[in-house]
Amino acid sequence: MLAQTCEEWEMLICPDDGEDYRWMGEIDPRLRVVSTAGHHTGAGAARNRGLAAASGACVAVLDDDDTLPPNFVDVALRTAKESEFFTVPTRYISENGETIRIVGANHVELDIPKFSGEFGSLHAVGRRERYMQWRTCFAQDVLHLCETIDRAGGAIPVARDTYYACTLRSTSTCAVRRDIGDEYGRLIGMQHGDMAALGAAQTRALFERRRSVNAGFESRPDRTKGYHEFVRDMLEAGGVPRVGE
């Protein structure tokens, strides 16, 4: 954030571990530490604390082990003048700095069916007064973007002049959890009552598709492949399963 080419930003640091991070506010006056809950509440609740404290015109999220390129704020503010919601491509990077795959860069505009074929996370960026609260659940990034797309009327632009860099680690969710299929099942069973009927149906279909891909990942013969390497190779081979496969 300190390397941004646009200086008009505020970064809200939202701890979720009960520790004291007030020292970070001394680094730069644009860094503001939001009061911690004092115990672990989950990323959704932590993000919502930051959203409640935000005062800027445009809101974006940045997880504590991810990065943004220097032009991110400049592109975001410029795009927000034309669109109340949008997203940027996600670049998945290994711990040694290798780009594994880039998600979302092939689309000028993104709807839920297109998002369904990406098999990755994309974060919503948008105007603060319309920005949606986060849920505390599995795949909350994915659900939040689906809900945002639905609120926007069915599609949002992709600002392809910048990106979000997500670092893949040996402790990442897709690497360590073994209940992902069950979690997708719970998401499929959600009512999604705040969404339009079409958006809710498309969201359920998205999670059905992800559950199918996850089943393939868990049964893969090459156990050295991480999830995003598996998905990359699957997409290159054209082997995307249909719902129910």
Descriptive report:
The chain has 245 residues and is of the alpha/beta class. The chain folds into 2 domains: 1-55, no CATH class; 56-236, no CATH class. The protein contains 8 helices and 10 strands. The protein has a 3-stranded antiparallel β-sheet, sandwiched between helices. A 3-stranded mixed β-sheet has the order 6-5-10.
Tags for this model:
alpha/beta; 2 domains; 10 strands; three-stranded mixed β-sheet; 8 helices; 245 residues; three-stranded antiparallel β-sheet
Subunit organisation of the chains: single chain
Point out poorly predicted stretches: none
* Average pLDDT level: 93
Count of spatially separate domains: 2
What structural category do the secondary elements indicate? alpha/beta
How is the biggest beta sheet arranged?
A: 3 strands, antiparallel
Order of helices and strands: EEHEHEEEEHEHEEHHHH
- As a percent range, the share of strand residues is 5-15%
